Amino acid sequence: MDMHNVVIGKANVGPADVIAVARGNAKVELSGDALAEMAASRARIDALAAEPRPVYGVSTGFGALAVRHISPELRAQLQRSLVRSHAAGMGPQVEREVTRALMLLRLKTLASGRTGVRPVVAETMAAILNADITPVVHEFGSLGCSGDLAPLSHCALTLMGEGLAYGPDGTVRDAGELLAEHGIAPIELAEKEGLALINGTDGMLGMLVMAIADLARLFTVADVTAAMSLEALLGTERVLLPELHAIRPHPGQAASAANMLKVLEGSGLTGHHQDDAPRVQDAYSIRCAPQVAGAGRDTLTHAQLVADRELAAAVDNPVVLPDGRVESNGNFHGAPVAYVLDFLAIAAADLGSVAERRTDRLLDKNRSHGLPPFLADDPGLDSGLMIAQYTQAALVSENKRLAVPASVDSIPSSAMQEDHVSMGWSAARKLRQAVDNLARVLAVELVASARALEIRTYSHTGGDSPLAPATAAAVAAAREAGVGGPGADRFLAPDLEAAYRFVRGGALVTAVETVTGPLA
């Protein structure tokens, strides 16, 4: 699909589309079949609105207030009041990419024709996305049930020309002024439209899709840094042989082992674990690296399955079914998404934990097989990477706290009408932090393993470099990216930040793949 033109129709929006719009500013457009389907389902809503009997979301109040029948002359006010009152977020503003992702996903559901909104509502949301106007959305306000209510309400407020939004220049301004500058007419909401704009799992789903993409890269990074640490510690690559992983057939484990074996191909350092201080086996953090990373990879596969199913969903209440019936339902409950968000946070925490153990082993002269204490230039005078490991340990500890599940909590709301909620938005927010922390943890392992490999190279008595070609490429690319090598102590924070950018942006994997070819 054209990165600059995401067509939203009755067919599904995929993960790549979400990332293209959220992070790449791709333009969106509505297909003709989507517009036709919306018009058809809207006709059904209009017919229900004309009937004397109350219909939830069309001619009643909401939540615990659904017992009141609203007369026709008050229904526009009903929808306005719904959005205004539910735009009750507090706390820090969420990232622009999160808001764009949740808007795209709500637009995708509107375009399905299952919500009963007029086509103009979807067209206006598409115009706002394309104008790079981003509603101000706050950290707190969603319980992950009845949809991400407060976040989506802040977006719906912008469609009405109210509230605050970021303009294309990143300045927060009055939403009505921004719409006027871009020739976008604000929406006067009709029956059910306010409810349809806010009743979905779009925020937590958007964050899940982006976290999956980020973690897929970081699992590959972890295989690379684990291989570099194994090589620097003179470990054996024989534990990575495919026949060993075939007898425990977890796909992720096999993929991680294969990645590490590719990275270590041609190394002159591996397999020397009995030369200086004989040891029968490497420590778990080295020997079991594929098992830990592989379990995370398989978790990621499951999370992608859930995300794909949710991307195929039309979440609203009530919904207009293909046969024209309008039915209440509970599909807005975020449990399926919340569970995998929490599951991924656990995987991210454990992957960081095992990476930190490898780093600590590289720095400890009693376990590093000939490397200087803390990889310092002049130990005692210099501290080397001692405190880099402290920083890494702090990040690992923080990720362990973030791994505590949000989805096991529930606080009843709406006068006990909504008496069990998913807390999926909270699970997504903490996962975003955990993913970023993991990138920093792996960056520290990269700094340590690269320095250790260079020290091994300096002490090598042969002619050619003893490093595997792929790890040598990783070290060289890291140095070009501003990650300093061995030497006297210096201001270390810039090195760590450069390593973080190198890891997070994908440059480490790119450098290695120039030698190995594509990694899993």
TrEMBL record:
Pathway(s) the chain acts in: Amino-acid degradation; L-histidine degradation into L-glutamate; N-formimidoyl-L-glutamate from L-histidine: step 1/3
Coiled-coil segments on the chain, per record: none
Cross-link 5-imidazolinone (Ala-Gly), where in sequence: 145-147
Keyword Lyase: yes
Keywords: Cytoplasm, Histidine metabolism, Lyase
An individual GO BP term: L-histidine catabolic process to glutamate and formate
GO MF annotation, one: phenylalanine ammonia-lyase activity
Catalytic activity: L-histidine = trans-urocanate + NH4(+)
First-level EC class: lyase
Primary localisation category: cytoplasm
CDD domains per UniProt: PAL-HAL (cd00332)
PROSITE patterns: PAL_HISTIDASE
Compartments it resides in: Cytoplasm
Protein name per the record: Histidine ammonia-lyase
Provenance organism: Streptacidiphilus jiangxiensis
